[in-house]
Design goal:
191 residues, mainly alpha
């Protein structure tokens, strides 16, 4: 029988309460610190790309050109939010608006060569930061952390998604908590 959040809360034991309290506190601290640093990486590109821009550019890189509605749907956000977030990316030349190849009346968003180069700079910087933060971890610890964080973010996405949907998921793209879609996805080796 599936459990509901209310049932899950009833099933926690007194021993779990302390652990769950610590977990929620650590997640809150992580979220604050991640936002403060924006997990921006190291070097010149540190803190130079906000989360929304990173996720949009990453999505366009992974999935290719698409319209605003498709991009919004794949990211689990509404079209007006995507439109607002994409505007500065277009203005700075990181994203191009082009005609749809099959329907010239429709517009698609595409990562520009400049956008791809910038995205790669930020990815490299963020990988260096992750390496620094986990330099004293074993490869198994890194893989286990990545797997558990992926699982945790998947549970958060599933909770936020409408019935049967996957709103809020970021397949293959690190989100604000740094997760990936699955333990076997790039950057998160299976443990």
């Amino acid at each position: 029988m599936p459990t509901t959040p209310e049932m899950s809360m009833d099933m926690t034991t007194v021993g779990d309460t302390g652990l769950l309290e610590t977990l929620q506190h650590e997640v809150a601290l992580f979220a604050r610190r991640a936002e403060q640093t924006r997990l921006g990486g190291v070097g010149q590109v540190r803190n130079s790309m906000d989360r929304a821009a990173y996720l949009l550019l990453n999505r366009l890189d992974k999935e290719g050109p698409m319209g605003v509605k498709a991009l919004a749907g794949s990211m689990g956000i509404d079209s007006s939010t995507v439109t607002r977030q994409v505007a500065p990316l277009v203005d700075t030349g990181l994203v191009k608006r082009t005609s749809h190849p099959e329907d010239g009346r429709a517009v698609v968003l595409q990562l520009s060569p400049r956008g791809l180069a910038r995205l790669e700079e930020v990815r490299t910087s963020r990988r260096r930061l992750m390496a620094e933060l986990t330099e004293d971890w074993t490869p198994q610890e890194r893989a286990a952390f990545c797997s558990l964080l992926t699982r945790f973010n998947g549970a958060l996405s599933a909770r936020q998604a409408p019935q049967g949907g996957a709103a809020g998921r970021e397949p293959g793209a690190p989100d604000s908590l740094g997760s990936q879609d699955s333990p076997g996805s790039p950057g998160c080796p299976a443990s």
